[in-house]
Amino acid sequence: MTSILILLSICQTPRPDILVADFEAADYGSWTVSGNAFGKGPARGTLPGQMQVEGFLGKGLVNSFLGGDDATGKLVSPLFKVERPHLNFLIGGGNNPEKLALRVILDGKVIASATGPNSQSGGSERLSWNSLDLSNHLGKEVRIEIVDEAKGGWGHINIDQITFSDKPRGEVTAQRILAAGRFLHLPVKTGAPVRRLKVLDQATGKTLADMDIELCPEKETPSFWTFADLGKRQSQGDVRLEARLDREDKALEKILGTETGPGRKDWFAESVRPLVHFTAPRGWLNDPNGLVFDGINYHLFYQHNPYGWNWGNMHWGHATSPDLFKWTDQPEALSPKAYGDWAFSGSAVLDRNNTSGWGKEGKPPLVLAYTSTGRGECVAYSNDSGITWTEYERNPVVKHNGRDPRLVWHAPTKKWIMAVYDETKGQAIHFHSSPDLKHWTFESEIKNFYECPDLVRFPDPADPQKELWVLYGADGLYLVGDFDGKKFTPKGPKQRLWHGNFYAAQTFTNLPNNRVVQIGWGQGITFPGAAFNQQMTIPVELTLVSGPTGPRLQALPVEEIKGQVRTTNTFRNLRAQGGDLSVAPLSTGAQLIDITWKSTGGVSGFRVPGLEIKHDSRAGKLFVNKTGLDVPKEGEITLKIVLDRGSAEVFLGKGEQALSIARDPRLGEGNLTLIPFDRMMEVVGLSVSELVPARKPLFKDTP
Ligand code: FRU
After folding, report:
1. 698 located within any domain
2. In a mutational test of the pocket of ligand 1, which residue from 403, 533, 536 has the highest number of ligand atoms less than 8 Å from its CB?
3. What is the pTM of this model?
């Protein structure tokens, strides 16, 4: 008996793998190559024009992107004897079983084949393990062919490390049943392969979440933890988790179904967390969406990936505030209807006169419009001040090739307007009108505008009884003009107010007294190592003023920022000459700085950690690090600066120009130091106010 057991266990111990090809040499050796996609020898990683290729072993791999996606060709191996039941290999690139394949050929016939993972634009150049079962052909002589006959998007294939083995490698569908309440705590490893994770209610089979996530492999340490809010369910019992994982990877075992979890530990106390700029509690954020004042609170919705540090899984995150700074996080307002049907950008209004009929008990509804990437422009309404939203049953209300609906009330025609990006025939903004937010009529288009339009009404600075309209694109370029409810007529060329890390800005609807408050996405302001990424810019008040070439916009931080001031240090009549002068110590927190200095020739300015600002009076430029803004050559320079972890905003004079700029969020304490460069520098006024944070997480920390 014992000897049989020993024999069995010997038989089950896998024999060593047999390497067929690792593509580490300078050429393909005894393989024959034809066409031009594969080159004369293996590639050394990523080829020109290709996204980053990852996941191959060693330095070389087969990569048929040589000459781009359109190049074709074939690699054929010499004959090999099948000495193990499984042929394992790393594979990446396009998904096209007919034209992009690794094939095993026996006596001229294909007996097994595999293709790459990517079938649509986007995707990833990561190679992953795959396996072909050759157990019926043991001892036979076969050839391996790597074929690229595909042109166009994802018209290439990547292969590495072909091995005969006793054990198959590759992804299998892993499942786990887990008791969970409202939350699932998920470990994320930035850079790990993206997995599609499905969460189903075990009792009803209903899909509760379906996401792309860089799920932390079982044997690795997470970069951070996040959570899925499963909301209210019929049963608070078991959920079923499902993901395709490497055969050996037990990553699902790490997921927790507890009420609190490591994802909310030290929430908002992170050392790199901005104090007065809005960031997502965790995950990625981009465009501000649905900015609306409901009469009591401001609502900030935002493009949100709750499950990763990078863009993806688009939801509408949500926060509310009585003053634009003290934000309380709310549950996700919109979640994808189905995997791939993401909730892209849009806007919100208060339907004061209940034109939609969605009001309840005399209370007007909030209505939002957003792009469902699967359906088109959709509307939804809320009767509980924006916390929960009901989709209109006849969605989509506009179907076209575009996105980012911007709703605004046009009083003279008593109609709602939707300004929306359309790319059917070039890049344009389309205007649609509606009496009730449900039925929309196309009115006109204006060309040369790109995504996330904003359409805002201002009093005409020349005659405040009249109105002017501003049409704003995602890139921050705007037109001032007339809008009659059908057509926008510009009154001058495009202008720019904002520079730097600033994109897809939006203004609040329903503000009293013609007030216009704008928030932008601080695009590219990153927080490496943190559980969150990107931020919003500080809310600013926009005014339309008369300029030398016609009306133009000005921006200054909203007055409410004063509510975050804890202490202020004021300095007067400072002079620096012949060298730098440190004047004010700065903490690692956030500050509001007001400074005016006389620039009387030469270069003068000041420095704070991560930021050098200098006026070059010869060039008539204000440099903020490397960004140069045009300013007068002589005279006083007045700046208002909001410094925070990760960024700074610089406002010139009365707000004629504004700049958002990224700073390293890990900077230490420092000083505000005057730098007279070659001349004497005279500071007329300087004040430095310490700003305090004001964020309220919705869900509690781990006890
Ligand atoms: C702009 C944008 C929008 C789109 C959204 C998706 O940054 O590309 O056009 O709706 O982001 O997150």
Report:
1. no
2. 403
3. 0.87
Q: Is the CB of 344 inside a 6 Å radius of any atom of ligand 1?
A: yes
Pick 694 or 257 by higher pLDDT. 257
Answer whether residue 606 shows pLDDT above 60.
yes
Locate 43 and state its tokens. Answer: 């590639």
**Scanning the structure block, which residue is given the tokens 């709750």?**
306
Both 490 and 424 in one domain: the answer is yes
634 & 673 share domain: yes
Q: Give the span between the Cα atoms of 612 and 604, in whole angstroms.
A: 11
Q: Is the CB of 644 under 6 A from ligand 1?
A: no
State if residue 404 touches ligand 1 by the CB under 6 angstroms criterion. yes
Domain-embedded: residue 272: no
Contact 375, 341 (CB under 8 A): yes
In total, how many domains does the chain have?
4
Pair (568, 551) in one structural domain: no
pLDDT of residue 703: 44
- CATH code for the domain in which residue 652 is found: 2.60.120.560
User: Residue 3 domain-assigned?
Assistant: no
Asked about 210 being catalytic, the answer comes back as: no
Same domain, 323 and 345: yes
Looking at the CA of residue 474, tell me the nearest atom of ligand 1. 1
- Do 260 and 160 belong to one domain? no
Last residue of a domain, one of 264, 298, 327: 264
Residue 274 belongs to some domain of the structure: no
Exactly one of 160, 246, 249, 287 is catalytic; which is it? 287
Cα 470 to ligand 1 centre (Å): 21
Q: CA–CA separation, 396 vs 377, rounded Å?
A: 5
Domain, as residue range, for 364: 283-557
Q: What share of the chain is helix, strand, coil (3-state, %, to 5)?
A: 5, 50, 45
Residue 107 CB contacts under 8 Å (≥ 6 apart), including other chains = none
Residue of 372, 452, 533 to mutate, ligand 1, most atoms within 8 A of C-beta: 452
Q: Is 422 in the pocket of ligand 1 (CB under 6 A)?
A: no
How far is residue 336's CA from residue 344's CA, in Å, rounded to a whole number? 9
Cα–Cα distance, 558 to 548 (Å, whole number) = 25
20-37 residue pLDDT tens: 999 999 999 999 999 999
Per-residue pLDDT of 196-226, as tens digits, reads: 999 999 999 999 999 999 999 999 999 999 9
Q: Residues near 347 by Cβ (< 8 Å), separated by ≥ 6?
A: 289, 290, 291, 292, 368, 369, 405, 406, 407, 408, 506, 509
Q: Evaluate: CB of 345 within 6 angstroms of ligand 1.
A: yes
Tens digit of pLDDT for each residue in 358-370?
Answer: 999 999 999 999 9
Report whether residue 564 contacts ligand 1, using a CB cutoff of 6 Å: no
